[in-house]
Amino acid sequence: MLTGELKSCLRQAFQQARAARHELLTTEHLLLGMLEAPAVRALLRRCGADAERLAAELRPQAEANTVPLLPGEARPILPQHAVERVLQRAVYQVTAAGRTDVGALHVLVAIFGEPHSHAALLLERSGVTRQAVLDELAGASPQA
């Protein structure tokens, strides 16, 4: 089951893609949505990363990695395969750990499994590592 925080992040990611009239939801959109989660923002702060700067670096990558809809064209926004893999990976990791709730930090860990995504690259450049997120999860509540 997805936590309320994660559902909110996903809604935010889709809203940002829709507002930009993007055809696809990318890992960059996903991370932009994740930046709204208090657990993610707190982790970024502890790692010395600036959420606003990270967002500013993600937006042009989201623009570059998707085709805009034509004026007047209305279609549902579809997640890229990489986004589907990230979400599946997060669910699998939580299930394998014997837990049921998938939260924002679980998805953040799963983003690192897409090493060619700009989202993972920009996280690492910001000083956020997969291990830092795992350490946070180890000390976090089950609703993280």
Secondary-structure-based class equals mainly alpha
Q: Return the average pLDDT rounded to an integer.
A: 90
Share of residues in strands = under 5%
| Helix-strand pattern | HEHHHEHHHH
* CATH structural class: Mainly Alpha
What is the number of domains? Answer: 1
CATH H-level name... which superfamily?
Clp, N-terminal domain
Q: What is the CATH architecture assignment? A: Orthogonal Bundle
Number of separate helices: 8
Largest beta sheet: strand ordering: 1-2
- The percentage helix is 55-70%
Strand element count: 2
CA distance, first residue to last residue: 12 Å
Gross geometry: globular
What's the Cα radius of gyration?
15 Å
Largest sheet: 2 strands, parallel
Can you tell me the residue ranges where pLDDT is under 50 for at least 5 consecutive residues? none
CATH topology-level name: Double Clp-N motif
